[in-house]
Every structure is written in C-alpha cells, then in structure tokens.
Design goal:
This protein is α+β, with helices and mostly antiparallel strands. The chain has 18 helices and 20 strands. The longest helix has 51 residues.
C-alpha cells in the first residue's frame, strides 16, 4: 500500500509562529540597542565630523520608541509594527548621515531588514528592504561614497533575510501539518469515545492488574458507579460477587496469557450493582497488546429482561398442556400485550387511561373497567368505561372499600360481592357480579388500582389475575412516566415562557413586535427563544435562537444563554465578540448535544445601520418599498460546535420605514 502524501498547506493558511507581543518587544530591543550604540559613539572617542547633538537626539527618539513598543507590547497592531520599522530605517539613515562615511552604522540597516524578513511576510519584507536601499542610496550619494557600501548594506540582509524567510516558511508548514495531524487524532478519539458512550451495552476496560481504565455511560447506568468512581479501582472488587471472583481471575489470566483481538470470550455471570443487588449478565471479552501493556476490554449486557422473557415463555408453554385453555390464554395474552403497547404511545395520562379501560373490556371480555390513581394515600377515580360520573366521587383512603384494600395490601384480589365493593357509580346499572382488583406498582410505590368488572354468567378466576399481572407492571410504569413527563413538561413550559419577554421595550423611532406560537400542548417543549433589549448608545439588540433538544434541559440551556447574552450586550460588546464569548459558554457545557443556532443583531437608529452575526440560523428578511430580500452574509456554525468558530459581523443599512423580520 502506497502511503498517502500529506496535502500541501497554502502559505496564506500557515499559522503564525510569533504573536504581535513578541514582535513588539523584539522591535523595542532593536530600538534600544541602536540608541545605546549612538550613545556609546558620542561617549567614546570619535571623529570630529560626528554631529553629537543630532546623534543624541536620534538616540533619544529611538529610546522613546523602544520604550513605547515594549510597554504596549500586548496592544500593538501589525500596521504599527510596519510603521515602526520604517521609522527605524529612517533613523538609521539619519544616523549614517550624521556620523559620516563608515560601515559600522551601515550595518544597522541589516537589523531592520532582518527583522522584517524574520517577522513579516516576504513581500512586505522586500518592501522594507527596498526602503533601506533607497534611503541608504540617498545617504551615500550625499557623502560621495562608492556603491560597494550600498551592496554590503543592502545585499547582506537580502541574502540572509531570504534564507531566514524560507526557513520560517518551512517551520510554519511543519507546524500546520502537526496541527492537522493532532486535530485528526483528537477527532478520531472523540468519535471512538462517542461511539462507546452511546453504546446500549456497558463497556469497560482493565489493565494487567485488573484495574479499571475505561467506563462508559451505559456501564454507569448498569452498575450505579460513575466513571470517576470506577476508574482506578479493581474490577473484581467493584462488580463481582464473592462466588464469581475466582472464575473472573481465571478468565483474566487466560486472556493475559494469550492476548489476541480475534479471540473473544463470552460468558454469563452474576454481577453486582452499587446498591448490592445482583443481576444476570453476558460479558463479551477480548484482550489486545498496546505497546508493553495488555488491555482487556469487555461489553456487559444485562440479561434480566431476557431471563424474564424466557421465564414467561416457559410458563406459557407449560400452560399449553390443556390445549383449549392454552389457546384462550394465548389469545388473551396477545390482546393484553397489544393493550399495553397501545397505551404506551400516549403522552397524556387522561388519553392513556381512557384507552386502557376501553381495551381491557375487549381483552378480558369484561363488562366494565375502572382505574383509580393514588395521591397521598388516597385513590381518586380517574377513568371509567362507563364515562365520567355526573359528580366526581369522594377520594377513597387506602384500606377502605375494595380498591382501597387492594392498594393497602399491594396484592391482587377477586370479589364476588359487587353490591358492596363496586365504587364506580356510573356502573351501578350493569348488574356486575364479580371484580378483579390489581395494584399498579412503580418503583415499589402504589400508583393506582385497576378494577375489572363482569356480570353473570362471566366470572373471574385466578388465571385472569395472572394475565392482568403481566400487564400491571408496565401499565404502572407507563402511568408513572406519563406523570413525570407532564410534570417536566409543565416545568419546562413555565421556564420557557418565563424566559421570553413579558412585553417589548418602547424605543424612540422604532416599532418592535413579536409573535410566539408554540406547538400543540402534548408536544415537547423546545429550545426556541427571542429577546429585545435596549443597550447603551441608544441602540437596540434583538436575538432569535434555537437550542438543540427538547424538554427541561433545552429550556434550562436557553436560560443560561439568554442571561449571558444580555450581560454581554449591556457591557457594550459588538455582535461578533458577544457570540465568541457565548460560544465559549456553550462549548464548556458537559452535554454533547448542547448546540444552538442564533442570530444576534444590533440596530443603531442614529445611522440606520443593522449589524448582525449569524450562527447557523435563518438569515434576516428586510422588507422595504422595493422587493423584500434576505440579508445574506457570512454565516458561521451554530454555537457549541467548535471552540473557536470565528464569527464575522455583517452590516446593512435599513431605510426609514423598512422592516427587519427574524
């Protein structure tokens, strides 16, 4: 295989080896060195032709310029450096004039020329060299010196400067390639880490001593140990029971003795969670040598659900000994599963419960069904196949009535005394004879009671209870999830509404209007927001944004971004600077999905100019007497995608009467 050649990097895209502060301080040293040479010339014996006063004035000027550039090194701009080099070249030319013929001061031209070749682009350096040649040519013509001096003063830095420029260019190209390779390596590591973190099974790795070196998010959820807590501890002490540890040590030693990535060992073991509970798991392990070390990696899959399903299948097959009864049970079990699946698609508790009581009647061939939900040790009638009663009945305390006894004992019950135990007034005229009550349990807590009713000749048996139990856990979990969702939905919706402005500011000479239309109430709350604020200078700032994701997390991220942007705006930052700082906030968020598109604009009524920065959002629309048009500009990536995206500000005049739509 032929190795792939590394791409050439254009010169204009090469990184700078020195920042402006280094260039400024280096230039300051040159000025101070030149001033020192001039002072020594005056202080030491020298020819009478030397103009001491002029030379001292030049030394003082060079010293002042050097001090300024040294003290302002962190605020120096590129054009100031070019101007200073040109001034320095002029001072050297004047020094040569006042000192008279000689090569010592002519060599000072080499300082400025070599500085230009060392720190500037080669074309600009050649321009500075041309200035050196022109000024020194004037001095030599005035002094009547030969062209040899000019060739030495100009040719020497030209040859040396070109060599230095080529060397620096080579260094910059090597630095660019090194940066590209490092970036590619980081991206590869991030992709690998993302794949492992998003894997549905737990992933872990251990070294030769059995110490954990890697632990993904699924492993955290599976065992209850965070990555920070697990890494650095011995795996055998962390997740294995006392009975499993010897077998683990043998398997680990076997993999260490024969490290081979193609050799995969898969075993079923019992593992222990942080809370001490034990669960069956499948561990798929392999070992690989990395340098002088051997790393053992493993994927862990929880087999609890698989064993549960296997037990259900075995129980079902056992019941098929009586063919006719088994067929009836299989049909009812299928219907119960369809019932549970149908209810799980609803996000609203009311819709889910209405669907549930309707389907139960068909599945169990019952006459009616009722669901009571628990709230503070009381049961409230929440759904009935007979429809809502004219007047809601009083809550039933745990332990009272048929449903209350089911909730208190947390056990399924059958009653054949419907006249006493029927607690749904809308079913009184159905002639119900028998009832089944099933507690709905989620995380060990009673969330409600399911009551199924039948009239003669239909009556319930223990087998009916068994069928309802298969669905009860899932129904309870669905109710619990629906409650959690509705609660989080209300919190997130309230938070999102609170983050939108209650009213828009009144701004002289401007009219501002906004309209917010959220999705249907059952939809998840999103991360959309807008804001309008008056900022210093009589200007107005507007923002339109959209955080990736839904629910409480997205609404919380909106709050952080909105507060931060308001602070940056009130501090007077321009749009590009404000978004750079806002991007650093989004980039530091731990959640990988915290990305946001945003359009931030500032309008100044004084000059009628709109300035904006677009971070992956739709462009603004300008509506004037002419045809409406989108204000296109340098769009950048959304916030949180790159650490240094480089946002670019764009501006456009807005004529009187014009409208900008975000």
């Amino acid at each position: 295989m032929t190795p792939r050649a590394e791409p050439e990097v254009p010169l204009g895209e090469l990184p700078e080896l020195f920042d402006d502060s280094v260039k400024s301080r280096s230039l300051a040293y040159l000025f101070v060195a030149g001033a020192t040479l001039a002072a020594l010339t005056v202080a030491l014996p020298h020819p009478e032709r030397v103009n001491e006063t002029a030379l001292l004035l030049l030394a003082l000027a060079a010293l002042v310029i050097g001090a300024v550039f040294y003290l302002r090194a962190d605020r120096t701009r590129e054009w100031q450096l070019h101007a200073a080099v040109a001034v320095g070249t002029s001072l050297v030319a004047l020094a040569n004039h006042y000192v008279g013929p000689g090569l010592l001061y002519a060599l000072l031209f080499s300082w400025t020329a070599l500085y230009a070749f060392y720190f500037f682009d080669i074309r600009l350096a050649l321009a500075h060299l041309a200035l050196v040649g022109a000024l020194y040519g004037v001095v030599l013509a005035d002094q009547g010196q030969s062209v040899v001096h000019w060739v030495l003063a100009v040719g020497t830095p030209a040859v040396a400067g070109l060599a230095v420029s080529r060397l620096l260019e080579s260094l910059r190209r090597q630095a660019a390639k090194a940066q590209a390779r490092a970036l590619a390596l980081r991206e590869s590591e991030q992709r690998t880490r993302l794949v492992l973190d998003s894997a549905p099974d737990g992933f872990l790795a251990i070294d030769e001593q059995g110490t954990v070196t890697a632990w993904n998010g699924a492993a955290e959820r599976l065992f209850g140990w965070s990555g920070e807590e697990a890494v650095g501890r011995r795996l055998r002490d962390l997740v294995f029971t006392e009975a499993e540890r010897p077998a683990h040590d043998e398997r680990r030693q076997s993999l260490l003795d024969r490290p081979d990535p193609a050799r995969i060992v898969s075993v079923e073991v019992e593992l222990r969670r942080r809370d001490g509970s034990v669960f069956p798991a499948e561990a798929t392990m392999s070992s690989v040598r990395t340098g002088d070390e051997i790393v053992i990696s493993a994927f862990i899959r929880d087999l609890t659900e698989r064993h549960r399903r296997r037990g259900e299948r075995e129980a079902l097959l056992g019941e098929q000994a009586a063919r006719a009864e088994a067929e009836r049970i299989a049909e009812m079990l299928s219907g119960m599963q369809l019932l549970v699946d149908a209810t799980l698609v609803h996000r609203s508790i009311g819709d889910m419960l209405s669907e549930l009581v309707t389907r139960i009647r068909g599945v169990l061939q019952a006459d009616a069904a009722t669901i009571f939900l628990a709230d503070e040790a009381q049961l409230q009638l929440s759904a009935s196949s007979g429809g809502p009663p004219e007047q809601p009945p009083d809550p039933i305390p745990f332990g009272e009535g048929f449903a209350g006894r089911v909730a208190l004992t947390r056990e399924a019950m059958v009653s054949h005394d419907a006249a006493t135990d029927l607690e749904d007034p809308s079913l009184a005229g159905l002639g119900v004879d028998s009832l089944i009550g099933i507690p709905l349990l989620a995380e060990g807590e009673v969330t409600g009671v399911l009551v199924v009713c039948a009239a003669a000749p239909r009556s319930f048996s223990g087998q009916d209870i068994g069928l309802l139990r298969l669905a009860a856990d899932r129904v309870a979990l669905a109710i619990d999830h629906a409650r959690v969702y509705e609660r989080e939905h209300r919190i997130a919706e309230t938070l999102q509404r609170s983050l939108l402005p209650d009213r828009l500011p009144h701004l002289p000479g401007l009219a501002v209007a906004a309209r917010y239309l959220p999705a249907a109430s059952e939809a998840e709350v999103g991360g959309d927001w807008y804001d309008v604020m008056a900022i210093p200078g009589g200007r107005v700032a507007v923002v339109m944004g959209d955080v990736a994701g839904k629910g409480l997390e997205a609404a919380s991220m909106v709050g952080r971004l909105r507060s931060a942007l308001r602070a940056y705006a009130l501090e007077g930052h321009d749009p590009a600077t404000a978004l750079d700082q806002l991007n650093r906030l989004a980039w530091t968020e731990e959640a990988a999905s915290q990305m946001a598109t945003l359009l931030y604009a500032i309008f100044d009524p004084a000059d009628g100019v709109l300035r904006w920065v677009n971070a992956g959002h739709m462009p603004p629309l300008l509506v004037t007497e002419e045809a409406p048009r989108f204000l296109q500009g340098a769009r950048s990536v959304p916030l949180g995608v790159l650490p240094f995206p480089g946002f670019e500000e764009v501006s456009s005049p807005v004529p009187p009467g014009g409208t900008v739509v975000l």
